[in-house]
What we know:
The chain is α/β, with parallel strands linked by helices. The chain has helices at 13-24, 51-56, 93-107, 154-159, 224-233, 282-302, 307-310, 312-317, 321-337, 344-374; strands spanning 2-9, 30-32, 47-49, 63-67, 69-74, 77-82, 88-91, 110-112, 115-121, 126-131, 137-147, 170-178, 186-191, 199-204, 208-216, 243-251, 260-261, 264-266. The chain folds into two domains: 1-46 and 92-167 and 252-327, FAD/NAD(P)-binding domain (3-Layer(bba) Sandwich), CATH 3.50.50; 65-91 and 170-251 and 339-375, 2-Layer Sandwich (D-Amino Acid Oxidase, Chain A, domain 2), CATH 3.30.9. The strands form three sheets. Strands 1, 2, 8, 9, 10, 11, 17 and 18 form an eight-stranded mixed β-sheet that branches. The protein has a seven-stranded mixed β-sheet with strand order 6-5-13-14-15-12-16, with helices on both faces. Helix 1 runs parallel beside helix 3. The longest helix is centred in the C-terminal third of the chain and has 31 residues, at 344-374.
Amino acid sequence: MERREVVVIGAGPGGSAAARAAALAGVVPLLVERDPTPGATSACGGFAGHALRRKLDLPDDVVEREITRTVLTIDGQPFVYGGRKPHYVSFRRSRFDTYLAQRAVKAGAELATSTRATVLDASARRLGLKDLRTGAEREVEADIVIFADGPATLAASAFGIGHKPGPRTRNAIFCELEGAYGDGQTADIVLNTAYTKSYFWLFPKRDCVWVGVGGSLTGGGPPLNERLSAFIEGHDALRGRAVRHQGAGLVPCDVAAEFVCDGAMVVGDAAGLVNPMTGGGIAFALVSGEIAGRVAAEAVRARRADGAFLRRYPRRFRRTPHHLWLAAMAWWRRRLDRLPPAEQPLAYARMLRRYLSFFHHAHVLADLVLGRREA
């Protein structure tokens, strides 16, 4: 039986952040990833706040586009935000996630790709790891397991913590279409109030554009794939382009009730840490992963793996600005959900306008403050 102090399942942003933080604190975590390349099957649009470029020291080969302008179109009426300095970065998740995983490895973590993890015995934290290339199997017992395996996390059934897909869980699908899009600096968000709490996104990359749509699994209207196909066919700049890649995935809409238990923690999407207004979760995954990784290292040094000790992680996360923002968006979303169904599409459109306006004004203020400090 192989023994490990910390095993992290999932080499997305949250998992790699957790593995790197634990490694920097003196632990040698095992980072397990099912895909041959981290991020290869992610359904995320590859879009995040520009502040991540500085925070993560993202190189040019990872950042495909710097986005200076966002155009929100509601029933044909455009609203423009930004236009001067970059406020977002656009990237492919395979390159982005691989870069983060390599940072974790450089810090001292061990990465196992093309490896599927299963929970064999939750009480003993015994995991089964299968190499999907060779078929070889091994068993590992861990002091602490950090689950960063997405909204359908293994932690929910094995440990009773983390996100559990339910009626409010949404779905997202996307297509990678060949060819440059627009000026390469503008992201488009298109909302049709015929659909409840759903929007299309167009994020330019270097030589392609990612087009996607998200929505409720139980909502009315045509299926998301038909909705996306009709949108592409009706868009002059998209019609007829070759499809390079397609993907789909679940998007949490509720923060998990429990983040920890004896010997286990959940981070990122596995904890339901996704903005319920937009579906974005990369920043939350990075912050929650870093905190969980540090707490795991502290637990190893203290020889404690009980849930009481590991609760340091959710307590610290609740003290971050990210949790405050997440709580505000969740409150906003609950107000929306209490409205009569007929009023929700227009109310969601108004909320999205206010959200983007606040976000871009906050970035302008942050740029001014940062500029004065650098001067």
